[in-house]
Amino acid sequence: MRWPDIGARNSRGTANHRTSLRLIAAVIFSVAAPRRAAAQAVTLEGVKSLRCQTLASSTTRWRGGAPVLSVSKAPSMTQLVFDAIDPTSGTARLIGNAGATDVTLSVNAKGLHFIEVTGSGNLMVTTVFRTAASHGAPGTFVFVYSRHFALGSAAGDSNATIPSQHHGLCAILE
Question: Which of 61, 73, 92, 142 is the Cys-Cys partner for 85 at CB 3.0 to 4.6 Å?
Fold first, then answer.
């Protein structure tokens, strides 16, 4: 193969820089392509810990017997860390802003599902989907965190129920 002379002129007398640039681009992309493919191959298999950051959320409060929805598309301070993830025993540990607790883990073809029933009886469910995020850093996964929350113990008081759902990305820590 004959390498193009960067300073060579074509039949019109213009520099043959396009050929050289195409060759350089081909070399760069052929070297970078395997790295991109490897980054996209990151999965949740064997993951031991995840850090999840909320990017948007919605909360419902009941006023006068009617639901009032508020939506936030701004990243929040809500961050969840799951560690000691053990699919065999169906357990994991959740570390949040109120401390750490053991949670139940359910694994299926759709993803990892972390289930917590708080000491006060509220249900919290987090799903980390197996589908890698199409945006964000390589190795990030979409998650949803649903809080089925009721304040106090007032039976039948709809003003005390505050369900919410938080959406964001999880990154593998280990």
Answer: 92
**3 DSSP assignment:** P
Provide the greatest CA pair distance for the chain. Answer: 88
Task: Give the global pTM.
Answer: 0.71
Asked if 159 contacts 174 with a C-beta cutoff of 8 angstroms, the reply is no
Domain boundaries, given as residue ranges, for the chain: 1-41, 50-172
Task: Answer yes or no: are the C-beta atoms of 79 and 51 closer than 8 Å.
Answer: yes
**Residues whose CB falls within 8 Å of the CB of residue 149, separated by 6 or more in sequence, listed in order:** 122, 161, 162, 163, 164
Q: Could you tell me how many residues make up the chain?
A: 174
Question: Which tens digits make up the pLDDT trace of 80-100?
Answer: 999 999 999 999 999 988 889
In the structure, what pLDDT confidence band is assigned to residue 139 with cuts at 50, 70 and 90?
Answer: confident
- The DSSP-derived string for 64-129 is TTEEEEEEE-S--S-EEEEEEEETTTTEEEEEETTEEEEEEEEEETTEEEEEEE-TTS-EEEEEEE
Please count the other Cβ atoms lying within 10 Å of the Cβ belonging to residue 138.
14
